[in-house]
Amino acid sequence: MFAGLPELGISNGEDLKETLTNCTEPLKAIDQFQTENGILLPTLQSALPFLDLHGTPRLEFHQSVFDELRDKLMERVATIAEGKDEERYGKLEELLEKSFPLVKMPSIQPVVMQVLKHLPKVPEKKLKLVMADKELYKVCAVEVKRQIWQDNQALFGDEVSPLLKQYIVEKEAALFSSDLSILHNFFSPSPKARRQGEVVLKLTQMIGKNVKLYDMVLQFLRTLFLRTRNVHYCTLRAELLMSLHDLDISEICSVDPCHKFTWCLDACIREKFVDAKRARELQGFLDGVKKGQEQVLGDLSMILCDPFACNTLVLSTVRNLQELLSQDALPRDSPDLMLLLRMLSLGQGAWDMIDSQVFKEPRLELEVVTRFLPAMLSVVVDDYTFTVEQKLPSEEKTSLTYPTALPDAFNKYLQENRVACEIGLYYTLHIAKQRNKNALQRLLPALVETHNEMAFGDIFLHLLTGHLTLLSDEFGTEEFCSAVFDGFLLYSDPLLSTLLKHLFVAITASSLLGNDATSLAHLYLGSFSHSSLQILSSSVRLDGERHCTAIFRSGLWLGHSGTFRDLSRRHSCVVFAVCFGSLSCWKVNLHFRSVHLSFDPDWSPSPCC
Predict the structure, then answer these.
(1) Burial letters 154-189, b for 16+ CB under 10 A, else e
(2) What are the CA-CA distances from residue 542 to residues 81, 359, 481, 547, 574 (Å)?
(3) Does pTM top 0.90 for this prediction?
(4) Tens digit of pLDDT for each residue in 456-475?
């Protein structure tokens, strides 16, 4: 407790113990010790006996004086550090040398930490002592830790790693949030609101104005993105830069070559649209990458790979295509559209670029513009034509039927090209948002086979299930259910667990919006081609009571076991969901874990209630 006092020539408890052990007159020895180590003010000598008469212990008096002096000293340290005196840091270093031996004393430690905090460059010897002592390292200010971290990447990585994991968990949790609707989804929060998240604020504080620490975090993000392919690390890269921008940390923003590009793109994300003016600015930044600086394309590609950036670019692309259609113009004639495709291509190629370390813009396939986009526009024209036909008077109508097949080029590039696939998926979302049942039934089967199974990614399924809540009335028709479930959602067994998570979220969201969640649950989980599944779904009570034995006791399971067994091999997850997941799932918080479901043909259920 009193470590370090002897080094400063101040007596401690051990000195008093030795004095009392060796003295012949203890009272005189105590009086002399108090005189030598007390507050040496002549005017105070007469006041101390007066305090004794009032029963005030000397310890209490000295402690109150000590606390007052300590607070004044800490204020003085802050004042010196904020001043303009050229010798201010020399004074602080001198004070540090005198006080550091007492750093282990709880009462003196705040003063030492205050001095360390305000020194722009703490002596290396002192930093090593702080780093070696876990207790000192824990209590020292983040300003001191920055000086330790910049020369200890492993230690900094240990501090940052939990935050990065937390960030990914939060992003993935947002994708399965029950607070889902067409008005509130993963992309609803504004960029500035997202930057107020705990992880981004902590990382910003840890970095401060230290360029070296900022570079370390960016390297961590590149490495993790390369290792996991998780695009949320790209989001964090952009959010971190813009958080430093919000705080006007020019020391970092001025040296990051992506700053102005990210700033402009952030404004586009806020508006969810890339207008002509900002498109020219973004193109200027891309065209301004000079020879020998191509490595910056790696960071630019990560920023464009951010799902929020990609969402904005594709929404702008779909909107641009609609405008071209109204103007009878070709896609290749639109400079803004070509820029959007260029940025999409750069973002989609981020992982390949960082992995190969070949920093060169990926070349957009010309046929995406000359074949895929015209094919997609032909689908839009078919839909417009049919819609206009339906609005004509009955005597003017023809026998036109809604087309079911898609152009070969459309299907081909959905499977072979990342940019084309992304545009096709967002066009599907656009159709669902418009509640266009016919067009949706036409498009969904084509999404079964897409480039790298992008149609079964969490972000697209999150948006699609939210949009499908708008079409709850359409689930009453067998044709629409067959297109949604048999034609798309239930096509791929390995992805059923992920699909069911999104379906449960949609059911929960529908209930929160005031819709009939019971009906939607039956429609989502009971609209299958086999009668056993329909009976099973309709037999489960959705009134909040956890009873499912009626199915088993009624003999429905056993009565249909022969035909049910074959279908269960394919839809085992769905059967599980129908039996157990639909029990008022919108009234409880579901926590999904990775579960492997296998079907035993010889298994028979026992009553569970």
Answers:
(1) eebbebbeebbeebbeebeebbbebebbeeebbbee
(2) 67, 56, 20, 9, 16
(3) no
(4) 899 998 899 888 888 888 88
